[in-house]
Design goal:
- InterPro entries: AIPM/Hcit_synth_CS, Aldolase_TIM, LeuA/HCS_post-cat, NifV/FrbC, PYR_CT.
- This protein is α/β, with parallel strands linked by helices.
- It is built from 14 helices and ten strands.
- It has helices spanning about 30-45, 60-70, 85-90, 105-110, 120-135, 150-165, 180-190, 210-220, 240-250, 260-275, 295-300, 330-340, 345-360, 370-379, and strands at about 15, 50, 75-80, 100-105, 140-145, 170-175, 200, 225, 290, 320.
- It has an eight-stranded parallel β-barrel with strand order 1-2-3-4-5-6-7-8, surrounded by six helices.
- Strand 3, helix 3 (about 85-90) and strand 4 form a beta-alpha-beta unit.
């Protein structure tokens, strides 16, 4: 298996943490069967890395991760750990290839969460990295709350991490407060000051996790941390499907992931977590490739690219139409003609009124079968 990210590698790595950070979403708890199913699907789709849990959390978690390792999936598995030797020792027992070691980077967390100082953080970081190098083949240093850290201290951490031979450093926008311009201009300084590949881990508290992730790539970051459907703590994380598709179509950045599998994987995680996917959720939502407006329907029938920046089939979806408030007479006539139904103008207008009443009552567009039901009752 490939060791990791080369300094000059052009492809952006997608590092999925659905089975760790995603499981921190309120109410989410995967069984082993569910973890295996999700891990297999992501590995087969071509994900670059899977963060699969926190062994120090419990003996049952350690056992589940060990079972995942025993599957010998064609992808690197890593675990999340505090900068505590006992956490790392629990990870070593699972047999994972790599570990992520998380340290607080902001004075807010160093002083007010751990009641420590910067010197202690650097010392603890060094001890844990040196210990991990004896046991695993890949080390990610995670900088928690890096978005609120002092830039000079971040550079000091990166310099020390480079000396210690860390394979990748994760910059975490833990509270989701960053915005894309700040990400781009600030993080360029970090990229230019280190040879270590950098990963961006964005939270979605202000709805900017995907945009911030793209800005990080534009700034020179080599990896993006994602979760399926964006599930995670609080408002969640950068969504795998959004980041992967935006990298491919907005930034023209190659990704190894098979985009046609995004929808099925999204539905799988939705089922496993019992969290319904919002209808308008980008890429995997029920309505995102459905047109209701007559103007849009006419446009996509002439050329799908009139209202789509990429083909639905490229992400495992299909274009569809529905009938709603803005569908208009032309859309109804098109449906009737397709079914071989000929009606006079007065009847068509009557059907339109009934459709409008029903869509207003149901607060949603109507499916084709529902419209045909109205036609049948009217005629």
């Amino acid at each position: 298996m490939k060791k990791g990210l080369a300094e000059n590698e052009q492809r952006v790595w997608l590092c999925d943490t659905t089975l760790r950070d995603g499981e921190q979403a309120p109410g989410a708890a995967f069984s082993f069967h569910q973890k295996e199913m999700i891990a297999r699907a992501l590995a087969e789709a071509g994900i670059d890395e899977l963060e699969v849990g926190v062994p120090a959390m419990s003996g049952s978690e350690t056992k589940m991760i060990s079972q995942l390792v025993a599957l010998h999936l064609p992808v690197r598995l890593i675990t999340w750990n505090r900068a505590v030797l006992s956490d790392l020792q629990a990870s070593y027992k699972t047999g994972v290839e790599g570990v992520a070691i998380s340290i607080p980077a902001s004075d807010q967390q160093i002083k007010n969460k751990l009641r420590k100082n910067r010197a202690w953080v650097l010392e603890q970081m060094g001890q844990c990295i040196l210990n991990a190098k004896k046991e695993v083949g890949y080390i990610v240093l995670g900088l928690e709350d890096a978005s609120r850290a002092e830039l000079g201290f971040l550079k000091e951490i990166l310099a020390e991490a480079e000396k210690l031979g860390v394979d990748r450093v994760r910059f975490a926008d833990t509270t989701g407060l960053l915005e894309p311009l700040n990400v781009f201009f600030t993080l360029q300084e970090l990229v230019n000051g280190t040879k270590i590949p950098l990963e961006f881990h964005g939270h979605n508290d202000l709805g900017m996790a995907t945009a911030n992730s793209l800005a990080a790539v534009q700034a020179g970051f080599k990896a993006i941390s994602v979760t399926v459907g964006g599930i995670g703590e609080r408002a969640g994380n950068a969504a795998l499907e959004e980041v992967a598709v935006a990298l491919n179509y907005s930034l023209n950045q190659a990704v190894r992931l098979d985009l046609t599998r995004l929808y099925s994987i999204g539905m799988m995680v939705s089922w496993a977590t019992e969290r319904k996917v919002p209808r308008a959720k980008p890429i995997i939502g029920e309505d995102v490739f459905t047109h209701t407006s007559s103007i849009h329907i006419d446009g996509v029938e002439k050329d799908l690219a009139n209202y789509h920046s990429f083909p639905p089939e490229s992400v495992g979806r299909q274009h569809s139409t529905s009938i709603g408030k803005y569908s208009g007479r032309k859309t109804i006539l098109r449906l009737l003609n397709a079914k071989g139904i000929e009606l006079n103008q007065e009847t068509v207008e009557d059907i339109l009124i009934k459709i409008l009443r029903k869509t207003n009552r149901l607060k949603r567009p109507l499916a084709e079968e529902e419209v045909l039901g109205i036609v049948a009752r009217t005629c």
